[in-house]
Amino acid sequence: MSIIQGLLWGVMLVCVISPSHAKVVKYAFDINTITVNYTGKSVEAIAIHNQIPAPTIEATVGDILEVTFHNKMDEDTSIHWHGVLLPNDQDGVPYLTTPPIKAHSSFTYRYTIKHAGTYWYHSHTELQEQRGVYGSLVFRPKGGERVKTDRDYAVVLSDWTDENPQQVLANLKKDGDYYALKKDSVQSWWGVLENGAQAIKNRIRGAWIRMGPMDISDIGYDAFLANGKQVSHLDAKPGETVRIRLINAAASSYFYVEFAGEPMTIVSADGVDVESQKVKRLRSAIAETYDVIVKIPDHRSYELRATSEDGTGYSSTYIGKGQKVSASPYPKPNLYLIDHSMHGNHDNQGGEAQEGHDMSSMQMDLEESDKNKQHKMHNMGFSQDVVEDMSDYEVLRAVSDTSLPKDAPTREVELVLTGNMERYVWGFNNKTLLESDKVLIRKGENVRFVLRNETMMHHPMHLHGHFFRVLNGQGEHSPLKHTVNIPPMDTVAIEFEADEEKDWFFHCHNLYHMEAGMARVISYEGTTQASRETFSKIGHDNLYFSGEISALSNMTAGILRASNTRNAFEIEYDYNYEKEYDIDIIYERSFTRYFDVYAGANLEREDSDKKPDNAGVFGFHYVLPLLIESDLRVDTNGHFRFGLSSDLQFTDRTKFEWMWNTDKEYRFTLSYEVTKTFLITGLYDSDFHWGGGIRVKF
Ligand SMILES: [Cu+2]
């Protein structure tokens, strides 16, 4: 589409005075596919008004905002107003609250602006957000900002991959560590040894509690963007103060944000004012917003750098004119030296304290830690200090009392954040959205969510339609947020006043985690409309196909697999080019990360002069400490077999695999990964002996 057409079709701002004297602020935009080139390669993206990010939508508290979207695509879309309090039917979660914007149709969202702040809007349809459907919202308070500045800019941070996001998800479903090589975050034993005693201890302790090596991100990105560019510029004159409205619109990246000049002053978090706090470096979780104020001291151009937490790249926004001043680089974290148990805030040592935690003691723990933190803060006189590295919420303090109504009954909901990296399945309490029921709450209650993260990753949890208090130790001044990070192996409590109706989405804002099941529907008893059918429209459980074939000098082997969240069909074969073969055809049902049950058939011919031996098989897999997989099976001839298998990542590209079973079969395999699909392999097998060749993964 040409620029002229774009301008003609996308009618910008129109203001009308409505009969109720509220100003109506109108926008109209197209949503369409466009071609972008961020990396030297032209690929398809989706844009609002032909722009990535979409245009900033501005309005003032009290205005009626009316935004029409014309969907020019062949697929459905939707727009969610992230962090905005609005009527349920304007919230933009397709099928749950608002109808989808069907292919080649239009939809107008209309609501009154009730509160000021920095928010954003984005597609809530599948993985469209990753392809560019996001933009900033600036809602101004009626009499101007509480903290005045000379300039005011929105800086929208995002991550970009040239791959189709659906392909990204399919790759992760095959192998949760699919992008480790691209991100240079493979956790090899060579690397463990290079990093010494602490790394060895971390690795063994992790494996003992059946946790794979720590990683910070799932996806290898091709670029990180600020306002749609890797390097961008904003005007400011020497001596001016600038309000930067930082919006983390990334699909799955946390950012460390640092300014090249004097420390930034945080004045607002998730759109809500907080007491001014100076920070040198700020970590922004996915979907959070922060307003920070910076000062341009002289005739130079100061960098605002947002580095992805995994250290694989950054975007630069230069503010001011003249010679460039760089922010200090954020070093790539050494994954080998991250101790998982360090994140636990209470008595979580490794993974042990995960069981037998009854709710009352959990609550006491949280309240106790709340008091301790308050005490600590008070002694520190924290607000005068500059925080070097703000990676939690301890210093965020609301400007007013945020206490919930004192006389309302409290409902406590415990949600354990769970994940299975092997199958790339995420959820709460070991259930995906599709497997779960609604979380029922009642209007008039104070609702407290206790969010306990049992995974090795950060999860940015977002609640639609409400602000919640994060119990961060600030007592009555606990900050109000719409998105809260839950660190690995940590527990965070949030609470809110249930003052709405109908159904609201609550989910991890890592787009791929949400799509893989980490979401719930929060429903107000009596007014809920969500049915099982609704769930099946907002959640997906697609079948993913994967496989590998080895062509070796002594044999050929392969696996073909089709799987979704709980089920897998698998064909596995070995064949020695003569008359000996061993084929398993099984159906497998996964119950937990550690346990699955299978049934099927085994077709085997052990010797070329013997008859084939076909039998039905039934068995289970169970993951043992040190991440060793055990396999116990019985066949229809009454024959039992027990086996063990595991692997060791020697170097970034070299992997050693082994298996052994009570039929005295064993195999050692060594593979070198040339690419994600092509490997060179050598093995020794008890039946087929030495061999070497190639292995293709798909
Ligand atoms: Cu998550």
Layout of helices and strands:
Blueprint lengths: L2 H7 L4 E4 L5 E14 L6 E6 L5 E7 L3 E8 L8 E3 L23 E7 L4 E6 L11 E7 L10 E10 L4 H10 L5 H4 L5 H7 L1 H12 L14 E4 L4 E4 L6 E8 L6 E5 L4 E6 L2 E13 L4 E7 L4 E9 L5 E6 L3 E3 L33 H22 L5 E5 L19 E11 L4 E4 L10 E3 L4 E8 L5 E5 L4 E3 L9 E2 L1 E4 L4 E7 L5 E6 L2 H5 L3 E6 L7 H7 L5 E9 L3 E8 L3 E9 L5 E10 L4 E11 L7 E12 L3 E8 L4 E10 L4 E8 L4 E8 L4 E8 L3 E9 L1
Parallel strand pairs: 2-5, 4-9, 10-13, 12-19, 16-21, 18-20, 22-25, 24-32
Antiparallel strand pairs: 1-2, 2-3, 5-7, 6-8, 8-9, 10-11, 13-17, 14-16, 14-18, 15-16, 15-17, 18-19, 22-23, 25-30, 26-29, 26-31, 27-28, 27-30, 31-32, 33-34, 33-44, 34-35, 35-36, 36-37, 37-38, 38-39, 39-40, 40-41, 41-42, 42-43, 43-44
Helix pairs in contact: 4-5
Bound molecules: copper (II) ion.
Copper (II) ion (CU) binds next to loops.
